[in-house]
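Researcher: Here's a chain I'd like modeled. Treat it as a single chain, no partners, no ligands.
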Amino acid sequence: MKTLVIYATKTGASFQCSNILAQELPHCTLCDIEAEKVDFTDYDCLILGAGVRDGKIYKPIRDILKKNKEILLQKKTGYFICNEKQKKTEEIIADNFTDDLQKSAVCIQSFGGYKAYAAPKEGMDQLKGLNIEAIKVFAQKFK
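Model: Modeled as a single isolated chain. Structure tokens:
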């Protein structure tokens, strides 16, 4: 199965998570939605991920969810968020993903994250604050 991981990132957390997913999944392509356009038709599985600010996932992914909802409902999908406030994960998912997208998804999960002002600087551990094991378990559901 061909898998496409689409992400939007500001501080780099979603990018890091997407890279780990791509290493775990065979036949996987990465797409930074802010840098390139994407054609969903060539892929069996779609995984979308984004950071969260003020309870909302980044706009480029929100736009994909709205504009491509019918396609997403027909594919094997998964969604991840990068949020540093783990206690708010369920609320963030409920507020950002419609019921039908939630029900049709293989899984929706938070991989952790960090505050924008506390993002790792160059030369620091870029995976700090991310749940690597959760990413690997998530990936298993798409193999």
